Amino acid sequence: MDPTPASHILHSGYHHPVARSWHQIGASIHSENLMYPLFIVDDDNAVEPVASMPGVARYGVNKLAEVLKPSRRRWSVVCPPVRSPGGEKDGRGSGADHPDNAVAKAIRVIKACCPSLLVACDVCLCPHTSHGHCGILNEDQTINNPPSIARLAEVALFYARAGADVVAPSDMMDGRVAAIKSALAAAGLASRCSVLSYAAKFASGFYGPFRDAARSGPAFGDRRHYQLPPGSNGLAQRAVARDVAEGADMLMVKPGMAYLDIVRQTKDQFPQYPLFIYQVSGEYAMLHHAASQGAVDLKVVLMESLMSMRRAGEAG
Fold first, then answer.
1. Rounded-to-integer distance, Cα 77 and Cα 54, Å
2. How far is CA 262 from CA 77, 303, 316, in A?
3. HEC readout, 74-120
4. What whole-number distance in Å separates Cα of residue 239 and Cα of residue 229?
5. Which residues of 88-114 are buried (b: 16+ CB within 10 A; e: fewer)?
6. Element (H, E) at 195
7. Averaged pLDDT for residues 241-251
8. Which of 63, 89, 181, 254 is the catalytic position?
9. Contacts of 97-101 spanning 24+ positions with Cβ under 8 A
10. Catalytic annotation on 181?
């Protein structure tokens, strides 16, 4: 006879696959929990593999219908184009809302071929600025915040007018959510375009492959003076609370796996808001490279990492 007290016998509660699923409520993974990232380039017919991210490529707009066909029920993230029109960059990121901007063209193509897809556009200046930073700079190369958030609002409005369902400011400038919400309201788009705030974005070492894909690394210095310190949780709480007060519709923590405590903290602080996690390029590449060396089973560890994010409070 088993001497284990009945109250201590746990195996009986999850011996069957269906029973196991009952213990993972809120941690299941469906297509509506995922966003499909797209890297758009100005060459309409391009397919450019990204060496640092296996299986990922940059696409021209003429390739998008084929790329998105298997994912018509998934959400789509359209990232800023790798190059500004004509290859020119300047101090204010003029290419971000240039009439020939590849993202705007991509939105129209996606809406034509996959009208049920929700299209979210990452809003940042770094791929378009000559200095590679996320805002407009003072002469001493520090961030000039007022013109930066005004410029970000212009870009967000440009994407919304092109048909974006969601604009997602990823810059971490102070006050950019309020500036974007005001611009959308003034244009009569306040109820048609959501703001997904990168509310707690950390100055992480996991972004390297993305910067390769988007060619958006800074020309000098780093982004530590406007992205959050990795060891901070108090600043993260304040940043999230600020963006909620400014009218963010949804929140994001970035990166994911190393910041699940911040995810839980944010969900506890604002349980009524949808919460997203950006599993960033370095996390993606790390899993891929480990699997390529036979160290892990890619599908198993991918699903485990995604479930851990759902368990921590992610709802996107």
1. 18
2. 23, 20, 16
3. CEEEECCCCCCHHHCCECCCHHHHCCCCHHHHHHHHHHHHCCCCCEE
4. 12
5. ebeebbbbbbbeebbbbbbbebbbeeb
6. strand 194-201
7. 94
8. 254
9. 97/154, 97/155, 97/158, 100/42, 101/158
10. no
The percentage of residues in the chain with a pLDDT greater than 90, rounded to a whole number, is: 53
Look at 214 and 204; give whichever has higher pLDDT: 204
Flag whether the pTM goes above 0.90: no
User: How far apart, in Å, are the Cα atoms of 154 and each of 63, 120, 122, 224, 259?
Assistant: 28, 16, 13, 25, 31
pLDDT at 299: 94
Work out the number of other CB atoms within 10 angstroms of the CB of residue 223.
20
The encoded tokens of residue 296 equal: 């892990």
Active site residue 299: no
Work out the number of other CB atoms within 10 angstroms of the CB of residue 211: 17
d(Cα 246, Cα 179) in Å, to the nearest integer? Answer: 9
The residue from 63, 105, 201, 267 that is catalytic is 201
**Which residues face 135 on adjacent strands?**
none
